[in-house]
Structures are given as C-alpha cells and as structure tokens.
Design goal:
This is Mediator-associated protein 1-like. The protein is mainly alpha-helical and 73 residues long. It has three helices and no strands.
Length: 73
C-alpha cells in the first residue's frame, strides 16, 4: 500500500518538496532584492504553496484520525 493508495498524493505532489518552492522563488530575485534578502513571490507559486500546505495539513489530520481509530480498536 503506497502513498497514492492512501489518498496522500491527491494533488500529485509526491515528488515536490516545500523547499522546492523557495528555489523557484530565488530565481526571481533582482540584485537589489538579494542585498535585502527579499523574495518576489509570483502568484502561481503562492497558490501552489497554499495548496501544498493545505494538503499537508489534511494528510496530518487523516494520520491522527487513523492513529486514534487504531488505538480505540
């Protein structure tokens, strides 16, 4: 039984790491931004990040519910 079978990868992000989004954002830095260590977050990456975070939170809830259900058995 893999992650996909459990519904963990419903959004097909099994190979995406949260740090990967930071790497994508780093490519949009200007020289001025680098000096201030500021990042420009493109809207499409911001939405993707929200989706990944929401999926992670949902997965954590499912894991907790499974653990509680298993301990009650």
């Amino acid at each position: 039984m893999g992650l996909r079978d459990e519904g963990i990868d419903q959004l097909n992000f099994h190979s995406a790491q949260l740090g990967y989004l930071k790497l994508l954002q780093m490519g949009t830095q200007t020289q001025q931004d680098k000096a201030g260590n500021k990042y420009e977050v493109k809207p499409q990456y911001e939405e993707l990040s929200k989706q990944i975070n929401m999926q992670h939170a949902t997965n954590q809830c499912y894991e907790c519910m499974r653990a509680i259900k298993k301990s009650d058995s």
